[in-house]
Design goal:
Layout: E1 4-10, H1 16-32, E2 36-44, E3 49-56, H2 59-71, H3 74-78, E4 90-95
Antiparallel strand pairs: 1-3, 1-4, 2-3
Length: 101
């Protein structure tokens, strides 16, 4: 991985299937966005959370992507599906791997 970003989407009770369908529609654009190397999806059943494990050419590419998503309204679409609304979404920006540890 070049630049790891982990994004967690905690679904409201009963909204996991709707969240999965929304992400199925949204993720092809994510994967084709400039600088995106890959996006893998995982579901944590115990917490109704979808985790995206993203790899980016640079954190600047990921920041441009995030700004684009905000401008195009994806957070507004996700708001009613997420536990805690859009503020329940959690992004962990890990960056580049450290090979000296």
């Amino acid at each position: 991985m070049k630049n790891l970003v982990i994004v967690s989407f905690p679904a409201k009770e009963g909204m996991l299937e709707d969240l999965k369908e929304t992400l199925k529609i949204a993720l092809p654009d994510t994967r084709s966005f400039d600088g995106c190397i890959s996006v893998a999806t995982y579901i944590e059943d115990a917490s109704n959370t979808i985790h995206l494990i993203e790899d980016w050419e640079s954190l600047e590419h990921q920041a441009k992507y995030l700004n684009w998503r905000v401008k195009t309204g994806l957070l507004d679409i996700l708001e009613p599906l997420l536990e805690g609304g859009a503020s329940g979404l959690k992004a962990t920006i890990c960056g580049e791997p450290h090979h000296d540890i």
